[in-house]
Amino acid sequence: MTKKLLLTLIFCLVLGAFRLYTGQAQEEPKYVGSEVCFICHSDTSKTWTHSVHRRTLFNKDPDKNGCESCHGPGGAHVEGGGDINKVIRPQQLAPSKMADICLKCHTGEHVTLWQTSAHARAKVSCIKCHDVHSSGEKSLLGDVENAKLAVEGLTRAIKQTDMASNTAPAGSEEKLAANKKVKELLAELDAAKKQLKGAETAYRRTAEPYVCYDCHKSQEVQSKMPSHHPIMEGKVKCSDCHNPHGGPNGMLEQETVNETCYKCHADKGGPFTFEHPPVTEDCTSCHRPHGSVNNNLLAQSQPFLCLRCHPGPHSRSGTLGNPVEVARYYTECTDCHNQIHGSDTRFSFRH
Predict the structure, then answer these.
(1) Most buried in the list 164, 269, 287, 344, measured by CB within 10 Å?
(2) Range of the domain at 297
(3) Residues 238 and 332 placed together within one structural domain of the fold
(4) Is pLDDT of 73 > 90?
(5) How many domains does the structure of the chain reveal?
(6) CA–CA distance from 182 to each of 31, 186, 195, 238 (Å)?
(7) pTM of the model
């Protein structure tokens, strides 16, 4: 053994002994369990225990069990009297570090492309879109509906009680009782409205399309145009077409725009004997999927949409001098070419 190696070994032994003596030796992280967390964080626990994350309580690995699966071992936090600097606070982490915590458990196929997604590149944190302590979307929607019913019922009750007060003789016991009841109902109505506002706020933090519209304002405006997908009507969700955790070409669920559209519009996909090139190439050549002022989500009204690619034959020299041909410009091309997405019979895309 060389002299240098011997000195190094002696130094390591002395340093280890010193740390043991001074109590500076690194201790194993101490897990305390979610029940301990609930003692102080009772308000959060009420909603968390109704969320999907409650299932983590069945994990045997303490690193993936309950509160400590995200916030880390709570021993030092508890011993420090609730010192917030001795526990992981995900909201204070960089988005990439936040994602690392979530991806410990969320390993499904739909999140495998997260690191290369547009949202990850834009440094969007998981908790920007997800409320990890909140109840599920369906439960929250139920809370909203129940609160709405309570507000409506109390409003009707107040109106009826107020009518009873107005018809009762002045100074009578009936009038005094009715006035007292109105005050009680008004107090209940205020409480119900606060509950409704809270339920709606929680719901919008976790439900589509509201979460998406926090950032995607242009798509929100388009969704309210005369022609739009029934997103606000609750029949279509953003995630029906997009995977917010990553995907090709605008984080689409499918490989291409057309494949995404064909999930619902299979009849437009063919195959046809005579195909229309824009249809086979990209549906957005003619349509605006998030909304349009034109019918059928068209990017431009007919016939001007078609004239972008088809200057003839109806617009050849002399056409505008023919009254019959001029009339074509005041109709829609699809009045004649009604198989515009493709045809098995005629190249002109007619019947």
Answers:
(1) 287
(2) 217-343
(3) yes
(4) yes
(5) 3
(6) 53, 6, 20, 44
(7) 0.71
